[in-house]
Amino acid sequence: MHRAKTGFLNKDGIRIHPAEDFVGMRAAGHLTARCLDMIIEHVKPGVTTGELDARIQAFIEDGGATSATIGYRGYQHASCISINHVVCHGIPGDKVLKNGDILNIDVTCILDGWFGDSSRMYVAGKLARRDERLIDATHESLMLGIAAVKPGNTFGDIGAAIQRYAESHHMSVVRDFCGHGLGQVFHAAPNVLHYGRAGSGAVLEEGMFFTIEPMINLGKPSTKVLADGWTAVTKDKKNTAQFEHSIGVTDDGCEIFTLSPAGKFHPTRGA
Ligand code: MF3
Ligand code: CO
Ligand code: CO
Questions:
Q1: Which residues pair with 180 in a beta bridge?
Q2: DSSP line for 138-174
Q3: For every one of its 271 residues, what pLDDT tens digit does the chain have, with 9 covering 90 and above?
Q4: Which of 49, 60, 106, 191 is the best mutation target for the ligand 1 pocket, counting ligand atoms within 8 Å of the beta carbon and taking the most?
Q5: How far is the CA of 218 from the centre of ligand 3 (A)?
Q6: Which atom number of ligand 1 is nearest to the Cα of residue 244?
Q7: What is the pTM of this model?
């Protein structure tokens, strides 16, 4: 169905949405978050990533939505499942989860024309102490980035907050992938960098919708894409983690569209 885009583009080419557009984003984000809650109990040693993806696809379709990733630039799955040193865009398939694996599951639903994009970390079996620190620091860096979101602040304030926290914990920020505007489209302006200088970049305005989705590495920031054209891995093969929320800027801060209704966004601490 074709529908005219609402709102207008500001001077930086970033769409400013009217208040009523929050309703659609809330519904799409909520379905995405419920999907990511649903899959928690299925993540365990012995299961394949393809089985998880099939459950995710069925959940999205049962919810009256479609997957934004199926058919996106030739991608054929309802999720990206990125294990251990896979940074993002891991392709679900025959890979079997083993004890101690950490994984990111990233889902984007389209509900009534609105996009909800979120990802979280999951653990198969027993979590190693080093990976627990990585997951905690990555989650905290996202939440600090979100805390920097309010009208008048800049996108550089978001990146700086994330980078400062990650690097103070002797971890590194991936530079090769970023967050993005979204709404009635999957990827729109601006690129939301997870590093940078406070006060730099476009100014945040009420009505902007975008994701923040930092990828934080235990080792160096460099990544490479494997021969399948999708799977991005750390060059040094050290583990990496990512959390992603879709948010909308409000008059005094932001609304997180993809909050976990079960309070299980963080795999061990909840929230
Ligand atoms: N959901 C991802 C993001 O956060 C994009 C995945 S595109 C895919 O932007 F084709 F790899 F699924
Ligand atoms: Co995204
Ligand atoms: Co995503």
A1: 191
A2: HHHHHHHHHHT-STT-BHHHHHHHHHHHHHHTT-EE-
A3: 567 889 999 999 999 999 999 999 999 999 999 999 999 999 999 999 999 999 999 999 999 999 999 999 999 999 999 999 999 999 999 999 999 999 999 999 999 999 999 999 999 999 999 999 999 999 999 999 999 999 999 999 999 999 999 999 999 999 999 999 999 999 999 999 999 999 999 999 999 999 999 999 999 999 999 999 999 999 999 999 999 999 999 999 999 999 999 999 999 998 8
A4: 106
A5: 21
A6: 4
A7: 0.98
